[in-house]
Amino acid sequence: MNDKEFISREQLKSLIALYSRINLSYADPEALLVSILESAMLIISCKTAAFLIVDSRSNLLRFSAVRGKNKDDIMKIDVHRNSIANWVKENKEVVLLNNIHSDTRFDSSVQEKNGLVENNLIAFPINLDGDCVGVVELWDKSDGSDFSDDDLDMVLLLGGQAKEVYRQAVMFRQRESNYSYLDTSVNAGKGYHTFIAKNPTVLSLIQNIRESGNINSSVLITGESGVGKELFAEQVHLLSSRANKPFIRVSCASLAPSLLESELFGHVKGAYTDASSTVKGRFEIADGGTLFLDEIGELPWNLQSKLLRVIQEKNFERVGSSETISVDVRIVAATNRDLEKMIQEKLFREDLYYRLNVLPISVPPLRERKEDLPDLCMHFLSKFKDETHKRFTGFSEAALNAIHSYMWPGNIRELENTIQRACILGKLPLIQVNDLKLPGNRASERGGSGEIASMASDIGSRGNKSLKYALDEFKKQYITKILIENNWNQTQAARVLDIQRTYVSKLISELGIKR
């Protein structure tokens, strides 16, 4: 840059804005790259900016972020080994070209695929510790003029500063990853699931679990099917003083009532026809630790009484025996059913409910914790790409938008199954929106504006045009939809609708909603 020339006011403002965003993006290298591109476009006023990252496995460049026209199309393009970007990567040198078509390194396939005609280019490497980790490309000035040496100086100033901060961001990410790995190893261990959460509500629940770790009170975990109630039960155990003792799981819905009693309390030899030996039950095996009773709402009435006694007196008898056995077990129960309604219907004991519900944990559905989606998606992608032997590098922007827009009525279980299917059906390097096979291939319609618009259109086409009729019909359809998404759990539906549970019951009755 000429010593007599000064940086313009707009360029200065752009640089200041960049450094502010750099500080905000310190822990997120990808967000930092987007800030670099947007600021570069403003500083030298170009039409398109792209960051190509070096894939650590293949050592090939791929588009990681693009700003400007046709960005979605550009992201899908494979980078040729003989491209200018690859030359910059290999030689770790800056390139300024004002007639790229005359350069032998120019690869026309990008322009052929995205439909744009670019003429001028500045490309520079981001080098860390002697290795090129990526290349920034800037295409065509907005006013049609050539790139100048001043433009190049500004870009190098920008790139030099951003490189150092990017280095720190990468180091921060590595330290965070190492800590996360160690933390997961300690808190999970063999036989436990990886627990992933950024959602404030979920983190608050974990903090409550941590604070109650030294007490033995029973825990009742509620939530829709597929939200991960078992993972919360694991955290109750792992964050308690019982972490080094057994964690025993029992599904109250998977066994016949006659077998479930023996499963829980054990039996002695000869207790029934096939009882050829004395067998310990899950309560004895869990002595000193935690017993997780999943789907507690399916527990038969007679076993509810026996469970209540164990919680109160901490002893029981095996099936076929009169000998009393004492145990020290913390009970964690889980259900997706409305136990309060079951109490009213005489299907669940009220006294047992209050014994179990000492420390209640209500797990939010996935649609209410969407900030967890990116990490959950990458976790499942990492799991299933190894199983399918396909080295996917991530998700396309369209696929991520679809994932964020979809309501996930099946919660985390549905998300896991969706990504597993996408890994099986998809093609490298990115999971595409069509690979997800979301219902109707229109992720936003389920529970979104498309479905609501359909409701309104249907109601409006009927003969009765009165406002009261339209409002009542809309409320009926919408509340029915929310109830279905929450497995007809009125407490959960009330939380989604942001109204009292008693008012949900009243509306069900008044509007004639039937299951």
Structural write-up:
With 515 residues, this protein is of the alpha/beta class. 47% of the residues lie in helices and 14% in strands. It has helices at 9-24, 29-44, 71-75, 84-91, 109-114, 149-187, 200-211, 229-238, 257-265, 282-285, 301-313, 339-344, 350-356, 373-387, 397-405, 411-425, 433-436, 449-460, 467-485, 490-497, 501-511, and strands at 46-54, 61-67, 95-97, 121-128, 131-141, 219-222, 247-251, 290-294, 315-317, 324-326, 330-335, 359-362, 394-395, 430-431. The strands form four sheets. The protein has a five-stranded antiparallel sheet, with helices on both faces. Strands 7-8-11-6-12 form a five-stranded parallel sheet. It is elongated and about 95 Å long. The N and C termini lie far apart (74 Å). 30% of the residues are buried. The model is unreliable at 1-7, 20-27, 174-189 and 440-450 (pLDDT under 50).
Q: pLDDT average, as an integer?
A: 77
Give the strand line-up of the largest sheet.
2-1-5-4-3
Main sheet attributes: strand count, strand direction, barrel closure = 5 strands, antiparallel
Strand content: 5-15%
Shape, please? elongated
- Structural class label: alpha/beta
Helix percent band: 40-55%
Q: How many alpha or pi helices?
A: 21
What does the radius of gyration come to? 30 Å
Distance between the termini: 74 Å
Number of strands: 14
Identify low-pLDDT runs. 1-7, 20-27, 174-189, 440-450
